[in-house]
């Protein structure tokens, strides 16, 4: 699930917005029912959020917008990290949510991923959208 809250930009992060067609949005992420990859405990998930223009698949260049903290031993994380994005009203911006299980020695296991257009989150009821991981 992802949602945005334009009113909750943390103090000190109110950078100038380039023009009137752009707005700063804050996205928070949660997940439910993640698969358990750990043998000796429950998964330690974190999420990487990337964005790109919603053009041709072959020409997409994903740019990491932010990543959440790791929450230990849970399959239903509610991450506290807020991901800031610039929403350009005239452009379609695609978001990629990749969820990983943090592993030892920097080896992480992908638990799944989902993509959605940013305007679908902003236009949704209560600005909340649930997208299944694949």
Write a brief caption for the model.
The chain is mainly beta and 134 residues long. The protein is built from one helix and eight strands; from the N terminus they run βββββββαβ. The strands form two sheets. A four-stranded antiparallel beta sheet has the order 5-2-1-8. Strands 4-3-6-7 form a four-stranded antiparallel beta sheet.
Could you explain the architecture of this structure?
The chain is built from one helix and eight strands; from the N terminus they run βββββββαβ. The radius of gyration is 15 Å and the shape is elongated. Helices cover 4% and strands 38% of the residues. Strands 5-2-1-8 form a four-stranded antiparallel sheet. The protein has a four-stranded antiparallel sheet with strand order 4-3-6-7. The protein has one helix at 118-122; strands at 2-4, 22-29, 45-53, 63-67, 83-88, 93-101, 109-117, 128-129. The two termini are 14 Å apart. By secondary structure, it is mainly beta.
Helix content: under 10%
N-to-C SSE string, H for helix and E for strand: EEEEEEEHE
Mean pLDDT over the full residue set: 84
Rounded Rg: 15 Å
- Overall 3D shape: elongated
Bin the strand percentage: 35-45%
* Oligomeric status: single chain
Strand order of the largest sheet: 5-2-1-8
Distance between the termini: 14 Å
Helix- and strand-based class? mainly beta
Low-confidence stretches: 3-14
Major beta sheet summary: 4 strands, antiparallel
Total of helices = 1
Tell me the number of strands. Answer: 8
């Amino acid at each position: 699930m992802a949602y945005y809250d334009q009113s909750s930009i943390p103090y000190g992060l109110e950078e100038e917005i380039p023009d009137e067609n752009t707005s700063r949005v804050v996205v928070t992420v949660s997940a439910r029912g993640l698969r358990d990859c750990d043998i000796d405990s429950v998964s330690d998930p974190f999420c990487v959020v990337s964005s790109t223009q919603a053009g041709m698949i072959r020409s997409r260049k994903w740019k990491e917008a932010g990543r959440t903290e790791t929450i230990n031993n849970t399959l239903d994380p509610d991450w506290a990290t807020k991901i800031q994005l610039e929403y350009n009203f005239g452009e379609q911006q695609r978001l990629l949510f990749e969820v990983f299980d943090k592993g030892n020695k920097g080896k992480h296991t992908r638990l799944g991923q989902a993509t959605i257009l940013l305007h679908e989150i902003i236009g949704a009821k209560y600005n909340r959208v649930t997208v299944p991981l694949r």
